[in-house]
Design brief:
heterodimer, A: alpha/beta, elongated, B: mainly alpha, 7 helices
């Protein structure tokens, strides 16, 4: 019973330390469990695979660096996949930090692995514009009403890739990344449904349960948290040799995830067992006092 | 000299030393980032001035970043550039020749009226601009939420209970899934119907609804745990990988 008393009074800093070690040790040993793609993520993969070369894909980076550990791996994988399929990318952001994140992603993925891609022809960086869902409401009818220049200040009419783009309905696919407002939900409500445009996305794990109701009719597919990113990375690595040689941050994070979740479950089980034992002990004491 | 002052001086000296001895500015940035990360994590022990400093720095920099980005990406090209294009020639020469559009005096006026909120005497005028924003947002959202969140979700719930593949074979997994979705939604909605007492068959359906809701909340909690652990893993990768170089790449 002294053990139960110790467990119920455990210092929470011991729990913090356990969680920290359960994350650090798998990272040190590079533990990566195998991943298999689920149908909700596979739908996105197959959609990108099925698009003909030159198809227009709008990528919206609606997150800030605080969500980057979850979002960046899926963004990198999707942009890599689209470049590999020779799709035309239109990169924008509804969140202010998204513009800089997009610039860094373009440098790392597109210029780093696809140096033959020409800016203005194969991809365009439209940058950030304020307005949230109001912005989506405007660009679904006229994109150039909000975007007079790209992120670098070049006139939008001078960009070859924007010549035949009038509004969002010219896009073959919208892939939105975000965990807050505005995010994937706003893209579904204000672009996907009214414009009949296929919408897919990747969200933080906190937002994922709220978006499952939109699958599969209103939302093509979704990568929920780092698990979704890891699934997409594993499938892309399986089918593309170039991506297989790259670093896979999503897959690398699943090892610590698995161990940390096991540790948390152990604590929950121990806590519940201690709780029920304590409750029974209290009941027995009350019965004895009643006698 | 108090212990706290000594602690601050030591941290200041370490930061300056990191800046001086780092072989590149990137080295200093990473060290400063590691310092701020450790400041935030120190809250797990107890609240302290280092945590407060990092928190306030984050809030201030975020607010300033959003303001600057909003100004240069929206106000400059979409307001000043529309009202008087030659004014933006030093910043955006490619669109400085477009004709002026005086309709944008309306959003300029509404924006200035909104700023009157800062005055205690005439702050009440800002309510007009705010009413315009609230009304427009409500009007836009009302239609979309009704169509996509209400009618769209009802449509998505109407699923065939028996599902067959293209070749005519019965798909048991999809059929069970459809039944579970239907029963779960139905029982969940029954639980929230409080005009009738939850007794008998109605009460049983309500209880099933509670269990469905509890499973949903549990799944949501599990996802939240995964999200928080992901952020922790990201920080540990930064500290032990980029900063200390202990994680093999």
């Amino acid at each position: 019973m002294a053990f139960i008393d110790t467990i119920t009074k455990i210092d929470r800093r011991i729990i913090f330390l356990s969680i920290a070690l359960s994350v650090i040790i798998p990272l040190m040993f590079h533990y990566i469990p195998p991943e298999q793609i689920s149908p909700i993520v596979a739908n996105i993969y197959e959609k990108i695979e099925s698009l003909p070369e030159g198809s227009r894909v709008l990528i919206s980076l609606d997150y800030d660096p605080s969500s980057a550990p979850e979002q960046q791996p899926m963004v990198d994988a999707i942009i890599y996949h689209c470049c590999r399929r020779n799709l035309r990318l239109y990169i924008m952001a509804l969140w202010a930090p998204g513009q800089n994140i997009a610039s860094e992603t373009i440098e790392r993925i597109i210029k780093g692995h696809f140096p033959d891609k020409v800016y203005g022809e194969d991809y365009v960086h439209l940058g950030f514009k304020a307005g949230n869902e109001g912005l989506i409401n405007v660009i679904i009818t006229d994109m150039k009403k909000m975007y007079t220049t790209d992120a670098k200040g070049a006139a939008i009419d001078d960009i070859p890739a924007m010549q035949d783009v009038r509004n969002l309905k010219n896009m073959d696919l919208i892939v939105a990344f975000g965990g807050g407002k505005p995010g994937l939900k706003e893209w579904i409500l204000f672009a996907g449904d009214p414009g009949n445009i296929p919408v897919a996305g990747g969200v933080t794990a906190v937002s994922a349960p709220l978006l499952y109701p939109y699958y599969p009719n209103q939302m093509l597919g979704m990568m929920g948290g780092i698990k979704g990113a890891a699934e997409y990375e594993s499938e892309l690595a399986r089918r593309d040799e170039g991506f297989a040689k790259m670093r896979h941050p999503g897959l690398e994070m699943m090892g610590p995830q698995a161990v940390a979740h096991v540790v948390i479950m152990l604590f929950i089980i121990i806590g519940n067992v201690a709780y029920f034992i304590e409750r029974k002990r209290q009941a027995n004491k009350a019965t004895e006092l009643g006698k | 000299m108090s212990r706290r002052v000594v602690l601050y001086l030591v941290a200041f000296v370490v930061l300056i030393a990191a800046f001086v001895f780092s072989s590149s500015l990137k080295g200093f940035y990473i060290t400063f980032g590691a310092f701020l990360t450790l400041c935030i994590l120190s809250f797990l022990y107890k609240d302290n001035p280092f945590y407060k400093f990092a928190e306030h720095l984050f809030v201030g920099v975020s607010a300033a970043y959003w303001m600057c980005m909003g100004f240069w990406t929206t106000m400059i090209p979409n307001l000043i550039g529309r009202l008087y294009p030659p004014a933006i020639k030093p910043f955006l020469p490619s669109v400085a020749d477009q004709p002026a559009n005086l309709w944008f005096l309306i959003p300029l006026g509404l924006g200035l009226i909104l700023l009157l909120r800062l005055s205690s005497k005439v702050g009440w005028i800002s309510r007009w601009a705010l009413a315009f924003i609230v009304g427009t947002t409500a009007g836009l959202n009302f239609v979309r939420y009704l169509r996509s969140d209400f009618i769209g979700q009802i449509y998505n719930t109407i699923l065939p209970i028996t599902v067959y593949s293209a070749d005519g074979s019965f798909l048991i997994q999809d059929s069970i899934s459809a039944v579970v979705v239907f029963l779960g939604v139905f029982c969940g909605i029954v639980y929230f119907f409080f005009s009738k007492e939850h007794k008998g068959a109605f009460g049983t359906a309500a209880r099933v609804g509670i269990y469905v809701l509890m499973v949903t909340f549990g799944a949501g909690f599990g996802y939240t745990v995964m999200a928080r652990i992901s952020l922790l893993v990201g920080r540990m990768q930064f500290l032990f990988g980029e900063w200390l170089g202990m994680i093999p790449s």
